Every structure is written in structure tokens, then in C-alpha cells.
Amino acid sequence: MFHWLRDNHREEVRRRSFPSEWESFLRTSVAHYSVLDDPERAELRALTLVLLEEKNWEGCGGLELTDEIRVTIAAQACLLLLGLPHDYYRNVESILVYPSTVVIPERRPGVFERVNAPVETAIPILGQAIARGAVILVWDAVKRGARHPEQGHNVVYHEFAHKLDMLDGAADGTPPLADGDQLAEWVAVCSREFLRLRELAEKGHKTFLDAYGARNEAEFFAVATEEFFDRPLALQKHAADLYRVLGAYYRQDPAGRASRLLTGEE
Predict the structure, then answer these.
(1) What are phi and psi of 124, to 5 degrees?
(2) Per the database entry, which stretches of residues form a coiled coil (predicted)?
(3) Phi first, then psi: what are they for 64, rounded to 5°?
(4) How far is CA 265 from CA 180, 182, 247, 252, 258, in A?
(5) Nearest Cα to Cα of residue 98 among 118, 129, 126, 74
(6) Bridging pattern class, strands 127-129 and 135-138
(7) pTM for this structure?
(8) Secondary structure of residue 127 in the 3-state scheme
(9) Could you report the per-residue pLDDT of 20-63, keeping only the tens digit for each?
(10) Are 34 and 61 in contact (CB under 8 A)?
């Protein structure tokens, strides 16, 4: 009964009118919106309405949470869902937005905790996806990434990719996949590309994928997701197999969209 009521409510939300002011935010602040076709834009707006309705949104650090902030974040998060079977990020309850870089305080061991690894020190972050918890984002980084995809850095794509990765209970760089064949190809391609990135990063070579992705498999998936949506033609050129498995997972072809935009095709 609960699922029936929830699904009915979601359908009602999806049918609501999308305010013209909100769409103007998408057209001016979310560069990717312009490369979608009309059905994709309609679906993105419907997904965005549900995410705005269902999640708890909080402005932190003195930030006044405006419609522009909420819509800009929600639409980018929903872009990742556009071709996926999904449940509107069921592992995200809250989205916390700060005005600028946040410093996560040093984690101190508990009184009875046995310390087997270095204690995490205070570090500045632009975003964080907490397992079984909130997504933390920094508005100035969100705005910059949304407007300038050519830079290949998008904190919303990055953190919500982590949340997709976590849907199976582990942040290991492998989100839930359709079947064993897709899993086998994913592991083969992503493992090879991850190890290649790590080797190049360790040698200090400049890499197309951000070297931050060499930290572990989870960061690799998040960084690769940023490039897949923001610089798809370049990713296709530098790592065609990686582009292919990401395309099969997300069920989208950003490179095709970018090519049509370059050639002036509708």
C-alpha cells in the first residue's frame, strides 16, 4: 500500500507544471540542458520536480536556499537518472548546501576505539556523499561546474555518482548493473583504465581523467562520470572502451548529443 501511494504521488508531482522561472534557471545555469532533445528535457523536468518534492533541502553556513540553487542541483542530479531504471536516489534523504568550500573537522578516535589507521585530519571539500546519509555540496562549485562543462569538473555529477555506486551497499566503483555480462565487461574495462590512470598519476604524467580518480575505484567511477557527461567527445577519443561501458550503464550518449550540436543537427 505504501509503494502504491508513493508511486501515485510521484506521478501527480511529475504532471505538475514546471514554472517558467525554473526552466530559465536550467537554460542559463545548466549548460547540458541545451543539448537535450525535447522529450529528454520534458523527462528531466519531471524527474527534477520529484527530487525537489521528496528530498530534504537545507542551506548551511549562512546560505539562503533559493529556488535557483535547488533547481540547478536537482536537475544535474537527475541528468544521471535520465536513462536509468531508478528510485529517485532512495539512499539520499537530505541535500545540504554550503556557500563555499567546507572544512570537514578532524575525526577524533573514541575513548575505547583501537586506532589501526591514520586519523583523518581536517580537510577542505567541495562536496561529499555520506554512506546512508546526506549529500553535501558547495554552491559556488556547483554553479561553476554547471555553467562550464568544458572544465570537466562537476561536483553534483561526482557526488551523486557516488550515491549510485552505493546503492548495492558498497562504494567500490561498481554500481548495480543489469546482468553478469555487463558486470564482466565493466570490471574488465574499468579495472584496466583505473590501473592505467594510477600508473600515470604515480609517475607524475598529465592525464585526461583527473588524477583524483586514481585514489580508489569509487573515485574513479565518480571522476569518469564527470567526464562522460561534461567532455564526452574527448572521453570517447582518449578512452573509447570506458565511454562505451559508461554509456551502456547510463543508457545515454552524450557524445552523440555533442556531435549533433557541433553539426547543427536537431
Answers:
(1) -80, 140
(2) none
(3) -85, 115
(4) 37, 32, 21, 18, 10
(5) 126
(6) antiparallel
(7) 0.90
(8) strand
(9) 999 999 999 999 999 999 999 999 999 999 999 999 999 999 99
(10) no
